[in-house]
Amino acid sequence: MVFVVDDDQSVRDALSNLIRSIGLQVRTFDSARDFLSYERPDAAACLVLDVRLPGLSGLDLQRELAAAGDQIPIIFITGHGDIPMTVRAMKAGAAEFLPKPFREQDLLDAIQQALAKDRQAREQRAELSTIRDRYETLTGREREVMTLIVRGLVNKQVAAELGISEITVKVHRRSVMQKMAAGSLPELVRMTGKLAPG
Length: 198
What we know:
Elements: E1 2-5, H1 9-20, E2 26-29, H2 32-37, E3 46-50, H3 58-67, E4 74-78, H4 83-91, E5 96-99, H5 104-136, H6 140-150, H7 155-162, H8 166-179, H9 185-195
Parallel strand pairs: 1-2, 1-3, 3-4, 4-5
Helix pairs in contact: 6-8, 7-8
């Protein structure tokens, strides 16, 4: 899904027709506020956004979305771009900044890249959510065992560290692997790496 926010009707119509021509769904808005009040479907998307809009500007909208934790990729278009504005938009995470007039193919390429980026980010968030859900099923002791085994300790060392028998460690270890749906220790290490903040 591609969202277009531009206060010029002719630009919205032209962009809408162009984007539809490659088989993508488009929804247009004449202001940033209209876009913010729209309840978007849960699907890969990107935003084609004019920098200069009446009321809330494109850069203001970018800031509001970022503050809300909304990670939709943004492609800025502008007839009045300057270098500081471009730098500010890109530093704030814009996917692309296209000065008007731009080649249609440049916009279509930017849209395809932004959609691929959003699709990948959605998959990563879904995977992380699954890992977190699995982690929540672990008991306190299983979490302690997992922390030590992913640090590379063998069962005997884990047992000594926690003051439990090696047999008990093996039971917990097996349970951790099953609950986390990890096929191997390296896979479990990868999962816990994703759980770690930062």
